[in-house]
Every structure is written in C-alpha cells, then in structure tokens.
Amino acid sequence: MAPHQHHTDGCCGHQHQHEKPNDRHDHDHDHNHGDASSFKTYLPAIASLVLLLIAIVFDHFSLSFFQGYLRLGWYLLAYIPVAWPVVKEAFATIAKGDIFTEFLLMALATIGAFALGEYPEAVAVMLFYSIGELFQGAAVSRAKNNIKALLDVRPDTATVYRYGKYISINPKEVAVGEIIQLKAGEKAPLDGELESESASFNTAALTGESKPKTIRKGEQVLAGMLNLEGVITLKVTKKFEDSALSRILDLVQNASAKKAKTELLIRRFAKIYTPIVFFLAVALTLLPYFFVANYDFNVWLYRALVFLVISCPCALVISIPLGYFGGIGAASANGILFKGSNYLDLITKVNTVVLDKTGTLTQGVFKVKEVQGEIPEKEFISYLASIESQSTHPIAKAIVEYSGADNLLKIRNVREIAGHGLAAEINGNEVLAGNGKLLKQFGIAYPNEVDEKVETTVLLAIDGKYAGFVTIADEAKTDAQQAITALHAVGVNKIVMLSGDKTSITQKVATDLGVDEAHGDLLPEDKVAQLEKIKAEPNRVVAFVGDGINDAPVLALSDVGMAMGALGSDVAIETADVVIQNDMPSKIATAIKIGRATKKIVYQNIGLAFGVKAVVLILGAGGLATMWEAVFADVGVAFLAILNAVRIQRMKF
C-alpha cells in the first residue's frame, strides 16, 4: 500500500498502518482487503450465513433432533469462521498491551451471548462485522504500491556496447563511461550524455514539460526520458542508483514519511467507549450485591451480558462502512475512485488545491492555435504542412493534422537542420520551416513580435522571404475553467498551478483559467519545495492533482493526492489517494461534494446508532430489555442506516 497516513480500512476502526513500503499491519490480522476479489475472502461469511439461516429454520420449526449439543455445535460452526479473526485480534491486541478494543468487546459480547444460550444473536453480530469488512474491502479492491510502481517504470534492461557488439543486461550492471543504445520508443534506463548528433525526447515523465525536447550531442539525457525517433547512443554518466528516476523514488519515500496522520471518528471514540462499556458491565454484575436485597449473581450476570450484547457496535459496524461504501459507489458513478474511506472524510477539509498543468488542466496534446501568413492561409498551410510531413516530431504531426492529408504538395530534397528545422524544395521553391534561429541563420528577416509569442512558434520562409508563422499550444481542457469556478464555489480559497512547462506558458494558462497563483519551470524537487511552502501556511489542507511520474512525490506529500486516471502515468495513479478516471478537472469539486455528502450521512448514522443504543442500554441495565429486544433494536437501526447510506447513490452531484 502507498505509504500514507494511518488508514482505517476496516469497519469499526479495524486499523491498518502503512508508513513505509513494507510495513506490516498494526495487528497482523487476517483481514486482507487486497484479496477482497478472491472467493476465499468471502467464503467464511458465506459459510456462516448459510449455516445460520439453516439453524434459524430448524429453530423456527422446533425440530426435535436439533437440540442440545447438536444445536450448540451447529451454531459454533456458524460462529467460528467469522469470529475467529476477531477473537484472534482481541488476543493479539491484549498481548501488545492494548486491552480495551472493539475486538475484545465483540468477543466478550458474543461469547456472553453463547453463555446465555442466545446463539443466533452471537453469530449474527460477528457475521455483520464480517460483512462490513467485505463491503469495505470490495470498495478498495487493490492495495496501492507506489514504490513498486516506480520501480516497474524503469526499464528492466539496458543495451550496452561490450565485446564489439550490443548486449542486453541489467541496468545495475552498467558502469559509468559505457555506451548504451536506445531505439525509438524506449526509455533511457540510466543518465548519460548523447553520443548521437541529435535526438528528440519526451521528458514529461520527469519535468512535466509539454513540448518534446531536442537534445544535441554532448548534452544530458536523464533516466526516464523517452526516445521519440531513431536509434541513438548514450555515454553513461551516473550509476543506476544515482539516476534521475531513482532520485524521484527517494523523494516519494521521504514525502510519504511526512504524510499527516488521521484516524476516523469511530476509531478515536472506540478508545473511550469500549473500556467504559466493559467496566459498566462489570459494575452491573457486582455492584448490586451491595445495594440490592436478595442479590442473585446469575440474574445480574444475565443483565450485564445483555448490556454487552446491546453495546456491541453492530449497527455501527454496518452503518459506517456502508455509508462510506455508498459514497465510494457514488463517486465511481461520477468517474472518481477513492482508494479509502478516510479520503472521503479528509477531502471535506480541503481548502487548497494545487494542480499540475499538462495533462491535468490542459489536454497534453498539441494543436495549431494561431495562423499568421503573408500569403493566403490555404497556400501557407499547404506549404508548411507539406514540409512538416517529412518529420515525425509531435509538433509537425499537429500541423499536418490541422492541414489535412489531401492538402499536401509534392516535396523534394528534404534536409534537416539540427535544432532549427527543415529545408526542402516544393513546386520549384526553396522552403524553410522551423524556429526563429533557422530564419536568422539564412538571413531572413521576420517581425519582432513573433519572438514575443508565449506559445511555441513555427516559422515559414519561401524563396528567402518570410511567409508567416503558426503557434502550437497545448489546449486547455473543455471543463478546465468550469473546474476552477466550481472549486471556488465549494469553498476552496487557494488554487495554485505548478508546472515543469516554461513560466510564460504556465502564467498565461493560469490567467486564462482564473487560477490564483502559478509557478513554472519546476523540476520534481521544486514542486515538493513549493508544496511544503504551501502546507506550512496555517490551517492549510492541501489536495494535489497531477498525472505524471514527476508528480508522484507531491502526490505522496499532499494531504489528499489526486491523479488523472485515463491519461495519467501508472505511478501517479498508484501514488494517488483519489483517481479521476475520465480526466475531467471539474470532477475535483465533485469529489469534494461527494465527500461532504458522505460524511453527513455517516454522522447521521452514528447519531442514530448511538441514540438508540443509549436508550436500549438503559433499559437493559434496568432489566427491561431482553436479548431479543436488544438485537431487534440493533438490527432495526442497522436497516435504517443501510437505507440512509444507499440514499447517496441517488444524489446528483
């Protein structure tokens, strides 16, 4: 699981602690939510339910053979599959010095019920608990493991030049100074200097930079960068453990250790409630000896055990996980995955949202945004797209897509001018397409305002004369502005954008969308520093939203980490606490609304459960409530709580 703050994954405060990648559960219990999809996980509850129903039918018809030890044995068979983990947990916590837990309370209550001959109630209490665990486990079906995910992203092999040929070996075995080869579509397994003349890399995994980066001979290539075209060679400059991707891994580990620790209300309350109930039951058994004439130990023991059965948090065991389960279900219906019920709680407190730019608020896909030609636009685009069709660069592809394949002209003598652009002959004309440096190299003048453009520009010259330019930009998502407005509407008072993209582009996007604050040209460690600065402000509860490997450290450091799931990297998705499955930033505000509605319903259920329990406990202590009345009250409350929890599924967000 991801190394976040304390998780309260089980119902009734069945706590799991995950502060480090290989942490064991607090109590080493057998309830493994990661295996919730396995039939073996459901088998104990299914077996218990079937045996209990059969026993109830036999009891109803008062079958003569179903008496005495057979009846007791049958109910024990129904009890053990669901009760054994709880009883085992009670002993484990006692051994560790934590005596008064809900596990001890449930164990005593149900064993007490057996002692009183109330077998069905004893089985039902444990069965309800087990079902509650399964509901929670089904909602969080797969444990998070961001450390493993990061390791999986790194290439398993490196193609190194040895013994006069290229061979594939483990990257850990490559020495500094050796030459490695990268084919198109492969990620660099190690940091190194480019030996080839030039190459184009997708660096988004490390920097978040939206534009592919052209690197020339002798310049640095970082592990994790994706080679976009051709076969290239690198000279290794750092060992495997010192690579850029390894540093990000360390950042995740360090950031995770700083996660805020939170516990659900019921866990905190149980620390007070459980010992009070236990000692009240003991007092109810023994104190009447000093005040009641004709004291009968068995009578008062019966009342004390009834008291324990009544006080057993059966309704809470169902109502709380079902409330959160309903919220998780409602969120899923809206394209949002919460990885734990505690994040539904915590997201209600978020007052600051920090967002990545590329892939989060913008599409992460290049589009032609502006066309300025000195010749008719159709002719201008035709020339530009024709020459760019000879390149596999994503910007070139965006231009060709804008023009359309049927608008291309015949082209000859294509030449690449490294780091500048392309030259070719079209319809007998000498055509140049590239950046401003290309035109300056050929002594071709163009307007100064072109260099002042925020977006990436591609210029065109025909026969030595400037013919115009296009701007290429990463478009904002259709609901990006709506997302910012919605966040302000739900009470988020600070929205910050952090990006690896250049500052001018970041600031323009922020201004267009109404983001309160923006910072660009940031590496992963810079994002961590910015987030730590924000978190240091008083009363800040921060949600970070991102989609790249470079976002993993800040996702882990934030109070609530949110990842874009459709286009986001596996690492971001694994590290995050909440995943927006359809990549719509407007769902951030929706997630907050769902969290608030869920918390309201859960608190209603808690109030209902404790209110009814308080009344029945008083009646039980006075001998006015029997075991059946106690269980009926508890089941009735549970039923109302279920109806209330299901209500969230029909809400519109």
Number of helices in the DSSP assignment: 22
The end-to-end distance, rounded to whole angstroms, is 30 Å
- Which fold does the CATH topology of the domain at 333-363 and 477-592 refer to? Rossmann fold
In terms of structural class, how would the helical and strand content be classed?
Answer: alpha+beta
Mind telling me the CATH superfamily name of the domain at 333-363 and 477-592?
A: HAD superfamily/HAD-like
Helical percentage: 40-55%
CATH architecture of the domain at 333-363 and 477-592: 3-Layer(aba) Sandwich
Percentage beta strand: 15-25%
Number of strands: 24
Largest sheet: 7 strands, mixed
Strand order of the largest sheet: 12-24-23-22-13-20-21
Uncertain residue segments = 1-37, 139-152, 251-263
Shape: elongated
Q: What is the C-alpha radius of gyration, as a whole number of Å? A: 32 Å
By CATH reckoning, the class of the domain at 333-363 and 477-592 would read Alpha Beta
Mean pLDDT: 79
Catalytic activity: Zn(2+)(in) + ATP + H2O = Zn(2+)(out) + ADP + phosphate + H(+)
Subcellular location: Cell membrane; Membrane
Family: Belongs to the cation transport ATPase (P-type) (TC 3.A.3) family. Type IB subfamily.
Organism: Pedobacter xixiisoli
